[in-house]
């Protein structure tokens, strides 16, 4: 399924085509699509096909067509803090885009039938966290994946605000899917050859809307097991109490992002020079920031005060002088124009990842800087 829009030369051009065809209609969805390069989820030998509006499969690895993913993202009506369940999470491409909208305090779970695909998804997720500047521009809800058949989720399992199923669902399993939803929740699934949006309006009431015709491989039915209990899939815990260390990391990164937000382009549309015939505006990948970023700056010195000597008098070490120099350098580079925005020259050329550079420049032990960067090395 796919081919609804023209192929692009890169990820941004693919998104332009999806916008022009009205598959992408909202700014949060557009920014999520621009933030993650679809080609990063392809095997290297197939990257040349990444910007075609076509599905791709290699062995157990599968990606739906971009026009399908964009319709799914729009139909889910994602908001920060919601819980999301991806049935057939595959490479993690969709779950990662969803995580950019859910934010730090959302819930992002996926269930996938094939263990090798989950291994592939975690590899891609790790690469995204370590190498993509988009990870630092958004408040990211990291997905968690489990191996299993989604039809073996326990009936009394937790319910979610948003659910997507990436395989064809027959009418017999519709009620099972509906029961995964909270009241007010939205389920998007291919139901009888139609991408369908189901909203749970009450305990026993539903609103159903057909979106577009689709063709998906059907759900794999659980295997019958003689003389044994049915297998049940345990999903990750819905809400876990965060450690004080995690909350401190979130707070520090938020403050640092506010501090360096003037160096990153703000989430606004900027007119660029396009090839002939391209008249619409687009915020490119490097111009789509998290909505929490703004032009209000805070001094990092409030987070990391100067060292206190034994006599309770403040003393300035070499590290403090270095840190003060970093702050002053950032102050010099932040040019505030009208309404607190940067000078126009800053918009045209986005520098390197300032959040990571700022963290690496802080006078902190290396293990702590590694932790603040979310790097996974032990």
TrEMBL record:
Coiled coil: none annotated. The keyword Cytoplasm applies. InterPro entries: PCMT, SAM-dependent_MTases_sf, SOCS_box. Pfam families: PCMT (PF01135). Its main location: cytoplasm. It is found in: Cytoplasm. GO terms for molecular function: protein-L-isoaspartate (D-aspartate) O-methyltransferase activity. Pathway: Protein modification; protein ubiquitination. Keywords: Cytoplasm. Residues 240-272 form the SOCS box domain. PROSITE patterns: SOCS. GO terms for cellular component: cytoplasm. SUPFAM superfamilies: S-adenosyl-L-methionine-dependent methyltransferases. Belongs to the methyltransferase superfamily. L-isoaspartyl/D-aspartyl protein methyltransferase family. This is Protein-L-isoaspartate (D-aspartate) O-methyltransferase domain containing 2. It comes from Silurus asotus (Amur catfish). The lineage of its organism: Eukaryota, Metazoa, Chordata, Craniata, Vertebrata.
């Amino acid at each position: 399924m796919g081919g609804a829009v023209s192929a692009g030369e890169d990820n941004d051009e693919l998104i332009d085509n999806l916008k022009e065809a009205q598959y992408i209609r909202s700014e949060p969805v557009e920014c999520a699509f621009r933030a993650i390069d679809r080609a990063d989820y392809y095997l290297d030998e197939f990257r040349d096909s990444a910007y075609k509006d076509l599905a791709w499969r290699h062995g157990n690895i599968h990606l739906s067509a971009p026009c399908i993913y964009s319709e799914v993202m729009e139909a889910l009506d994602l908001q920060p803090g919601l819980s999301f369940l991806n049935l057939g999470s595959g490479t993690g491409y969709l779950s990662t885009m969803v995580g950019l909208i859910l934010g730090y305090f959302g819930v992002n779970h996926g269930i996938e039938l094939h263990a090798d695909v989950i291994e592939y998804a975690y590899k891609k997720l790790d690469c995204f966290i370590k190498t993509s500047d988009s990870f630092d521009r958004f408040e990211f809800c990291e997905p968690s994946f489990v191996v299993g058949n989604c039809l073996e989720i326990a009936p009394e399992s937790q319910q979610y605000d948003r659910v997507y199923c990436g395989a064809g669902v027959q009418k017999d399993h519709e009620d099972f899917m509906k029961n995964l939803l909270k009241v007010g929740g939205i389920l998007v699934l291919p139901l009888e050859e139609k991408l369908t949006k189901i909203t749970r309006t009450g305990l026993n009431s539903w609103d159903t809307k057909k979106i577009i015709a689709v063709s998906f491989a059907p759900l794999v039915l659980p295997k019958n097991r003689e003389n044994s209990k049915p297998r049940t899939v345990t999903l990750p815990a819905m809400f876990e109490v965060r450690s004080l260390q995690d909350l401190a990391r979130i707070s520090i990164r938020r403050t640092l992002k506010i501090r360096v937000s003037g160096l990153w382009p703000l989430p606004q549309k900027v007119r660029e020079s396009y090839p002939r015939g391209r008249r619409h505006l687009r915020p490119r990948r490097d111009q789509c920031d998290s909505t929490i970023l703004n032009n209000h700056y805070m001094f990092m010195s409030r987070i990391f005060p100067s060292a206190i000597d034994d006599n309770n008098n403040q003393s300035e070490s070499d590290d403090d002088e270095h840190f003060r120099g970093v702050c002053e350098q950032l102050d010099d580079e932040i040019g505030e124009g009208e309404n607190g925005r940067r000078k126009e020259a800053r918009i045209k050329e986005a520098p390197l990842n300032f959040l990571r550079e700022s963290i690496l420049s802080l006078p902190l032990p290396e293990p702590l800087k590694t932790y603040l960067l979310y790097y996974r090395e032990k």
